[in-house]
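Figure 2 data, in text form.
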Amino acid sequence: MKALSAVLDEKIPLKEIPLTQNSFIVDQNGALVSEIVTNQENRSFVPIDKIPEAVKTIFIVSEDQKFYEHIGFDPAGMARAVMINAKNQSIEQGGSTITQQLARNVFLSHEKTYNRKLSELLYSYHIERTFSKEEILEGYLNAVYFHNGVYGVQMASNYYFSKPIDKLTLAQIAFISAIPNNPTLYDPIKHFENTKKRQLLLLKNLLDDEYITQEQYDSASAEKIRLNLHHRTDRYPDYVTYVHDELKRLIAENEGYTKRAADADKDEKAVLEEELKNRVQEVVKKGVIIHTALDPALQANVADAFKNHLSDSSVQGASVVIDHHAHQIKALYGGHNYQKFDFNRAYQAYRQPGSAIKPLLDYVPYIDVKNAAASSLISARPFCKKDYCPKNYDEKTYGNVTLETAFKKSYNTPAVRMLDEVGIEKGYSYLKPFGFRSVTPADYVLPSAIGGFTNGFSPLELTQAYSAFANDGVFHKSHAIIKITDLQGNDLYKWQEEPVRVWKSTTNNEMRKLLSAVTASGTGTKANHAAPYIGGKTGTTNDYKDLWFVGLTDRYAAGVWIGKDKSGSIVNLAKSAPHQLIWRDITKNRPF
């Protein structure tokens, strides 16, 4: 027959006290942007050596005076509880030790049944065998509930007084220590006087047991308690929403989920997706710091630009700004009045690109394959192939023009000719390195040369692709997350990706000339401003359902899209070109 200890080791393998902790998203300067609270447990773990002695003493005196003597439960206390419960025919009195409360709070439930009480005793005994008294007290003080969604002494101190536990006075320590005995009754926000009465009782207990002097008691009792509530930090919802999405993909890449999903069938992918979701929750629950590239000033600048130039509330917009030297997403705008976890137009809206696709699908392949230059000639005459006969935007007919003229004036027939001459398959081979998610086999047709796609592209996708023009034709994936560390600063996850050359350096030089011509004297002059380099491309879809400007300066690649969510016409905005003015304002006041 196995000993009880052996059975417990087998049935209840305890390796740690699993406490959910808050995780944090920080910006490029390390400033807090958003606190992530999982399972509604708002907690900040604090080690036992950082907890003031007064905190430990108050809880031991008030909750479990024989804590350092018992084996997890106090038989005498339990006997008293049994007698009271029998007399009242209830299970109200618990006679619970700190260890039992820890077992109940972390491993069990608060259900008032004899079966649960038996489990609690077994867990408590096993906890005492597995952990030291210091570890148990540490776990308890970090697990105990302080109402208002607050768990643990550190978060209680932060929430009610906006400072860490080691900065509290004796009076403040006793005040928050009053709450866990009955969190609803002693909620200091709703029942301040109740909390104050119990605080005085706790201080009196310390005095009676000679843990504090009469002078300390008098001073703490007389001290006026002023709550200074700390509200959870949660700023820049557009950017933070994307960070949550990217966090999932970063863990998937680092831990092999992406590779496994590539070879999985539909059912297997669903299982992997659920497994990944649980894994992300597991990582976040342990407490991590997500270091991001967010530039708060630039993020605010983007929001201001949209506010200043897009007053029509029926029209939405999105933008992405990338530091193309660091390959980092610095700002991301998901739409006006954006709320966290809403549909984020910056990376979730797939829209027709119009002429914004021409640099990538038409001009780059043509110049790269034909060794053409900005000064090379191309026909802008009418074009027909089978029953496809596209017209120029202004419906005018032109003869031979330079690539620069065709590009900056956004003529359609030269663009279609380029893709036709290079070959559709060849042209699309230049798009593959960018990983455009919604390009389908049905898109491999000539109308795509001027923006006719089944689904389209997100602003993030197009902006990332354009960043290759700033990197000599080499594509680097850009990310919001720089790295993820634990709360002690140890690295846990980083992106491990290799850059890919998409086109030749000579091709890139010619493309930069073309992009610059657009802002200097073409369709994008309203985006122009003083900078060492500036270039980009406009995009307008049929019936003016989408307006794009995607371009770059010496420092940034930025994309702006505006349109209606349900694809209505915005022809009344086209002439004033708010998308170009927004792009200009986003980039003009930034260091280059």
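Caption note: Confidence is low (pLDDT under 50) at residues 81-94.
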